[in-house]
């Protein structure tokens, strides 16, 4: 196992220590969330009683394969805990998510959870968000108009940079919700709250990857061990 994979596992193990029998869980997406699902499945087969709401078809498939019991957010609209990865996090526990395209369901699930624990390797902690391109999920209708409106909304905040329609296999990437993703390389985002409001005001934007006020705890693993930041 690579060092990075081992750190993801360590962060996942720390998050798992917060899971108790009887809990309802939001289950994240991505390679770090996958490490969590694998450890969770071991505990479930050893008798842990939980039920999870997956944040993507990909995580749902892995949970089914490993025997992690699932429900839907409609059946269980209030969750005890959500555990998920992140593409970037700052010291105020603001995040960029959506590198894997799951940001919409991830945000809905995080908002429905009493607590959100974010698991990541140390390299994801940044001073200022934005080195990672911000995923913006958009409706397919009028995507060029939405693209221009996103560009304008960002430029009014002094943010410029390339906006690219995410591709996969030579075609536009389609999210689990049937939408498209524009990856916005703004560089440093000094005021994520203002950008969040500006993007939500653009018709055609379904959701964006800035997670603000959602993470309660950030578990970071790296060469120096595992540590937690709390909000
Ligand atoms: O859409 C994907 C999610 O937001 C992931 O949690 C995020 O991209 C981090 O993924 P990873 O753990 O693979 O770095």
Characterization of this structure:
This protein is of the alpha/beta class. It folds into two domains: 3-126 and 212-223, 3-Layer(aba) Sandwich (Rossmann fold); 134-206, 2-Layer Sandwich (Alpha-Beta Plaits). It has six helices and 15 strands. Strands 2-1-3-6-14-15 form a six-stranded mixed beta sheet. The radius of gyration is 17 Å and the shape is globular. Bound molecules: ribose-5-phosphate. Residues 28-33, 84-87, 97-103, 106 line the site of ribose-5-phosphate.
What bound compounds does this protein have?
ribose-5-phosphate
SS content category: alpha/beta
The helicity comes to 25-40%
Cα shape: globular
Mean pLDDT: 97
How is the main sheet built?
6 strands, mixed
CATH topology name of the largest domain: Rossmann fold
Number of strands: 15
- Rounded to the nearest angstrom, the distance between the terminal CA atoms is 31 Å
- Tell me the number of structural domains: 2
Radius of gyration, taken over Cα atoms and rounded to an integer in Å: 17 Å
Strand content: 25-35%
Strand order of the largest sheet: 2-1-3-6-14-15
């Amino acid at each position: 196992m690579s060092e990075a994979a081992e750190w993801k596992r360590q962060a996942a193990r720390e998050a798992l220590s917060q899971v108790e029998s009887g809990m309802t869980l939001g289950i994240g997406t991505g390679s770090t969330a996958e490490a969590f699902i694998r450890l969770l499945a071991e505990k479930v087969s050893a008798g842990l009683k939980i039920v999870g709401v997956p944040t993507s078809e990909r995580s749902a498939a892995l949970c089914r394969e490993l025997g992690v019991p699932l429900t839907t957010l409609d059946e269980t609209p209030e969750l005890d805990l959500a555990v998920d990865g992140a593409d970037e996090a700052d010291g105020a526990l603001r995040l960029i998510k959506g590198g894997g395209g799951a940001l919409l369901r991830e945000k809905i699930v995080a908002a429905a959870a009493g607590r959100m624990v974010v698991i990541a390797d140390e390299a994801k902690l940044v001073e200022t968000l934005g080195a990672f391109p911000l995923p913006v999920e958009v409706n397919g209708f009028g995507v060029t108009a939405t693209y221009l409106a996103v560009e304008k909304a960002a430029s009014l905040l002094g943010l410029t940079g390339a906006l690219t329609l995410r591709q996969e296999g030579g075609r536009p990437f389609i999210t689990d919700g049937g939408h498209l993703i524009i990856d916005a390389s703004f560089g440093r985002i000094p005021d994520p709250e203002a950008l969040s409001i500006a993007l939500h005001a653009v018709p055609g934007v379904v959701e964006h990857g800035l997670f603000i006020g959602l993470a309660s705890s950030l578990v970071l693993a790296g060469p120096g061990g595992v540590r937690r930041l709390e909000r």
